[in-house]
Amino acid sequence: MQASYQFIHTPHARFTSCHAASLSLLPDGRLAVVYFAGGYEGSSDSAHLFSYLRDDGTWHSPAVLQATEGRAAGNAILWTLPEGRIALIYTLSHSSGRVIWDEARIYARYSWDAGASWSEQHTITEELGFICRQPGLVLDGGEWLLPIYDNRNLDAGNEGSVLISDDQGRHWQRYGRPADG
User: Residue 140: how many CB atoms within 10 A of its CB?
Assistant: First the structure.
């Protein structure tokens, strides 16, 4: 493999900055990336963008996968599941005014066609203050494990947790340090 250097995202009027890129191989073997971009981290005009490496070695123009008016886009990951479906797992802030990530929630959308189209948004957890960072794992028994971190108490630092689904992502249970009383 020969490495080359090129920009995936070139800043422009709507997306002057980008942050938190996540790479994944699509079921057809192409390399893909998802990240959030906007005026700045935490801006309510931000969105999750998706691109993939074409056969000629250049990146396809980024496409907006998800943008929710008035909600700041946060970390996102692509996760290729064993049956060939791609999961887009992403964070949206629910704070008003200045964005604080302890009011974030995790969502998912799915693609069965290597990212050409995506399902509607599904809520992974109603609990606020958790952010995704890394793709998950599918265990031999079929359980899905999704690493997340707790962003509710910045003075204590970010603590890791894991979400587990035993029904292919329809329902999730958080495991980790219990919330302080």
Answer: 5
